[in-house]
Every structure is written in C-alpha cells, then in structure tokens.
Amino acid sequence: MANVIKKTTRLTGLKVLKNPREELISCYKNIIKALNEMPDNAAYKRYTMATVNQRLTIVQNENDPSHIEQKIKCGQCEELLIQAQNELSLARRFLVEKPWEPLARQSPDNQWKWPI
C-alpha cells in the first residue's frame, strides 16, 4: 500500500474506499460469475469478459491504488468500483432478459430503418 493515504476523491458524494483493491477484485469476480452463466456465443459476454479479465489482472498484480488507476486509465478506484457495480447489475439483468435469444415474434417491417 502507498505511504500516502488519499483523504478525498474530490468528487461530490464519492467517499474514499478503505480497501479499493479488495472491493474491485470481489466485484470483478462477481461479474465473471454472472458472465459464465451466459452462452459462449453472446457478444456481450465475449467483450465484457475480455475487459473485466484485463482489469482484474491489473488489480491483482498491483498493490498501490494509484498504480491501478494509472494502468486502467478510467478514473479513480472509487469510480472504477461504480463502473464495475453498474456492469454487474447489467450482466445480472441480461441473465433475466436473455437478449441473445431469438425474438419471440417477427419484428415489423422498417422497425430498424431510420429515417422512414
């Protein structure tokens, strides 16, 4: 762990995490569990799994939160955790909605055409 402990995120309403590394690892592993329940041919699973595995590897190999932030390049650890929690929520919703399955009925003509 770094010698300097961050006192604030400087983002309104976003508190500093006490154990950002552990929380990120836990959330990324939960995302992977949810993704593993999806079929292998689901595009969402393939692309999300690649991103989550890349981030999980970085978090597991780095002990300093500032190094994690620099390598992932998507904000502070607190923001990364919010992103991961949102992704987990979406993955769980996809497990219910099953967007990879065929449509229940044929879509109307011109539904996907714009402008009509």
TrEMBL record:
One of its GO terms (cellular component) is mitochondrial inner membrane. It is a peripheral membrane protein. Pfam families: ETC_C1_NDUFA5. It comes from the Eukaryota. It is found in: Mitochondrion inner membrane. One of its GO terms (biological process) is respiratory electron transport chain. Keywords: Electron transport, Membrane, Mitochondrion, Mitochondrion inner membrane, Respiratory chain, Transport. Signal peptide: none annotated. Complex I is composed of 45 different subunits. Belongs to the complex I NDUFA5 subunit family. Accessory subunit of the mitochondrial membrane respiratory chain NADH dehydrogenase (Complex I), that is believed not to be involved in catalysis. Complex I functions in the transfer of electrons from NADH to the respiratory chain. The immediate electron acceptor for the enzyme is believed to be ubiquinone. This is Nadh dehydrogenase. It comes from Dermatophagoides farinae (American house dust mite). The gene is NDUFA5.
